[in-house]
Amino acid sequence: MEDKSRRRFLQNAGLATLASVSPLAAEPQREKELFIHHVFFYLKDPNNAQDEAKLLEGLHMLAKVPTIQYVHIGKPANTNRSVIVKDYTFSWMCFFKNIIEEEIYQTHPIHLDFVKNYAHLWEKVHVFDSVGPGKVS
User: pTM to 2 decimals?
Assistant: First the structure.
């Protein structure tokens, strides 16, 4: 099966499965809400350049999940205000058309491989998910 056809099949199979078991099937409005997934990674050894490079490699691989509309990988900015948190190593923010697309991402083989192959590098992660009206442009 051609790679694009296989990917489309997996996406459609995931959508069909979610529609049959998800409470979202009864809430079509939520399919229209932009979903933002923002993760802050804290390395076990934040001063280890090799670990940092390895995690960055993994994040670039993770960005290939097809349901992601937009991704941003960042490091703490050089800003100084009392409300700014700067103790993380990387910020990973990605946008999805809706929560269903994000749920497909969570179970996608690339995401599962990322967790399996890179989780040993981080001490903790903080995840902030948000939804709201909007369009990805």
Answer: 0.75
